[in-house]
Amino acid sequence: MYHTSLPLHAEFDIVRLKLHLEEHPEQAQQIAIDQFTYHLEVLEENHKLEQKLQSISLPSLPQLNNIKLQNEYNDLLEQYTKLLNSYGRVTQENQKLRETIEYRTNEQSPIPSFLRKLLNL
C-alpha cells in the first residue's frame, strides 16, 4: 500500500473510497473526474492566495544597527551601576544616622524624654 503523510482520518477516507469503488466500479470514472476537478480548483485558489500574499507589502522597519544597540546597552548598564553605587552609599549613610540617633537617645543621654517618644526609640 502507498504510504502518505496524511492524517489517520484521511487515510480512513481513502480506504472507504476504495471499498466503495470495489462495490460500485461504474462510478469510478465520475468520482475521478469530480476529484480531479476539485483538486484543480483548490490549486487555483491556492495560487490566488499566494499572489495576494506576495502583493501585500509589510511596513518597512527601521534597520537597527548592532553597534547602536550595544552602545545603548552599555549606557544603560553604566547608569544602572551608578544607581546601585548611590543606593549603597545612601543605605550606609542611613545606617550611620540610625546608629547616631540610637546612641543619642539612650537612657543616659541628655535628650528630653518627649524627643525620645517622638523618635520612638
Describe what is shown at a glance:
This protein is mostly helical and 121 residues long. It has helices at residues 8-23, 28-55, 66-104, 113-119.
Mean pLDDT: 81
Rg value: 41 Å
Q: How many DSSP H or I helices?
A: 4
Give the strand tally: 0
Quaternary structure of the protein: single chain
The helix-strand sequence is HHHH
| Biggest pleated sheet | none
The proportion of strand residues reads under 5%
Instruction: Name the shape in a single word.
Output: elongated
Q: Structural class of the helix and strand makeup?
A: mainly alpha
Helix content: over 70%
Terminal CA distance reads 90 Å
Which stretches of 5+ consecutive residues score pLDDT under 50? none
Give a written overview of the molecule:
This protein is mostly helical and 121 residues long. The chain has 4 helices and no strands. The model has no long low-confidence stretch (mean pLDDT 81). The longest helix is centred in the last third of the chain and has 39 residues, at 66-104. The chain has helices at residues 8-23, 28-55, 66-104, 113-119.
Which terms would index this structure?
single chain; 121 residues; mainly alpha; 4 helices; 0% strand
What does the secondary structure layout of this molecule look like, with pairings?
Layout: H1 8-23, H2 28-55, H3 66-104, H4 113-119
